[in-house]
Amino acid sequence: MARQLRFNGTGGGGTGCPSVHEDVESGEAIVHGPPLTDLDDTAQLQHLSEGEVAVVVPRELLVDWTPKDTTRQARIIDLDEFEGLFRTFDHSAWRLETRRRFASDEATNTYRQFVETGAVDWDVEDPYCELIRSQTAQGKRVERVRIVDQPPTTGQLYLLDNAKRNSGLGEDIRNLWRADADRLRLPSEDFWLFDSRLAAKLRFDDEDNLVDVELITEPAEIVRYSVIRDAAWHHAVPYEEFAVKLSDSE
Fold it and tell me: Residue 173 pairs with which residues in a beta bridge?
């Protein structure tokens, strides 16, 4: 079975070499770069076995992109503490949504209304709306990119309709086809990035229920999430434009 590798980063500028990947299951690091071929150099290496290849990488690559602490325990917060992050961020809250469905959505009256009528009479005065409206009124940014399958799932269409409400609160919502996300090698993780310094990775069970949230502050991981944000944001389309293109293709 093939490894599931995650690209951590590169020290090679635009060339992408040398680079570091991480096995998401085992935590092992995979480094590739130019081989060390000079016989006088390789003769100095200890324990270089047959079939092994030595590669040359800048020291900064290992400092910046290899896992820092193999014994780090995930810091898990409950949903109440997660909600508190939306009250305390200073400048920006950015979301990547990659899932095909959310069980919590399907349990709502608005979801049933959408399935039955194709539209929703959204409540714009609930606690979430009041919170986000108060934050964006202070000039803070709340942004998200939603990945959409082709054809979209019912849940994704529901959220596309929901974007009208959230946009009215001051959110900037954009969409990206999953094929484009795969081409960009965006991860399947759902996460929020707050002030480019703290990531909240949403964890779901097998029935698509949000269970808890992993809080991440490790600098290399925050840089990785920031790179993901920049790539997704650059290629995503404002939800209004995306909805028009989707209607035209039907």
Answer: 144
